[in-house]
Amino acid sequence: MRALVLLALAGFLAQLVDGSLGMAYGVTSTTLLLLIGTNPAAASATVHLAEIGTTLASGIAHWRLGNVDWKVVGRIAVPGAIGAFAGATFLSSLSTETAKPVMSAILLVLGVYILIRFTAWGVSTRDLNKPVRRRFLVPLGLFGGFVDATGGGGWGPVGTPALLASGRIEPRKVIGSIDTSEFLVALAASAGFLVGLGSAGVNLGWAVALLIGGVVAAPIAAWIVRVFPPRVLGSAVGGLILLTNTRTILNSDWVAVSGPTQTAIYAIIWLVWLGAVAWSVRAHLADQRAAAVIETPPVPRPAPVED
């Protein structure tokens, strides 16, 4: 019972981050399941099963608040579903010993990308009225869906930064559109895992716990997406993913690292992580001050008094 409560809390926090940043529900939840010893394919299957409900709730919440660009959803969701189905069947064919470090390596790369992307550049708001081309969205959807299924998360980390970097969609609509289209991706991934695994290894109770927490958080996250600085949250999530998956890789058969070396690696990651968050907070406050100066009208000088 205690484990289910903790999973529900994890699902709540993961969806709170995902719904307000457009990423990290699958990555965060899968990382947690891996840490407690779940089979990698079963972990990803369990998370995607829960995501069917959480993404539906998140999509509805974002739609009601006007955070969805339906043209983007229509162009990226179907390729994403195709990629997710292919990724799920591929992961299901790997052994546990092979899949766990492979998945952690994928998650590690995504964590580094998120950390660098949001810390160094934040979000872009230029050229918001230009349409996003189908030739960009289709391969992005295919790749994002495949990575999402094989890594247990990745639809948001791949899709959200790419769309933000294009500068053609308002940030809140990027997040809302990615979250909404993820419903179809989660559905296709679950179907792929069902074909590859059947129901073996999928913990329905864990999926329900993650689902409950995520559904409760979905409307809250859709609201705070307007007020919480994505740059700071992106740096925080990227560092967390980097730390947890480095631990998995260092404890695998891929590497042979002594205890003091591991401690040094963890210390470096902590310092980089804290530095990145501090930098993002400073940059966000600087942007706010600059915006306040621009928006504040100059105070008119009084006319000179003639004698």
Automatic annotation (TrEMBL):
<keyword id="KW-1133">Transmembrane helix</keyword>
<dbReference type="Pfam" id="PF01925">
    <property type="entry name" value="TauE"/>
</dbReference>
<keyword id="KW-0812">Transmembrane</keyword>
<feature type="transmembrane region" description="Helical">
    <location>
        <begin position="204"/>
        <end position="225"/>
    </location>
</feature>
<feature type="transmembrane region" description="Helical">
    <location>
        <begin position="136"/>
        <end position="155"/>
    </location>
</feature>
<keyword id="KW-0472">Membrane</keyword>
<comment type="similarity">
    <text>Belongs to the 4-toluene sulfonate uptake permease (TSUP) (TC 2.A.102) family.</text>
</comment>
<protein>
    <recommendedName>
        <fullName>Probable membrane transporter protein</fullName>
    </recommendedName>
</protein>
<feature type="transmembrane region" description="Helical">
    <location>
        <begin position="72"/>
        <end position="91"/>
    </location>
</feature>
<dbReference type="InterPro" id="IPR051598">
    <property type="entry name" value="TSUP/Inactive_protease-like"/>
</dbReference>
<keyword id="KW-1003">Cell membrane</keyword>
<dbReference type="InterPro" id="IPR002781">
    <property type="entry name" value="TM_pro_TauE-like"/>
</dbReference>
<feature type="transmembrane region" description="Helical">
    <location>
        <begin position="263"/>
        <end position="281"/>
    </location>
</feature>
<feature type="transmembrane region" description="Helical">
    <location>
        <begin position="103"/>
        <end position="124"/>
    </location>
</feature>
<dbReference type="GO" id="GO:0005886">
    <property type="term" value="C:plasma membrane"/>
</dbReference>
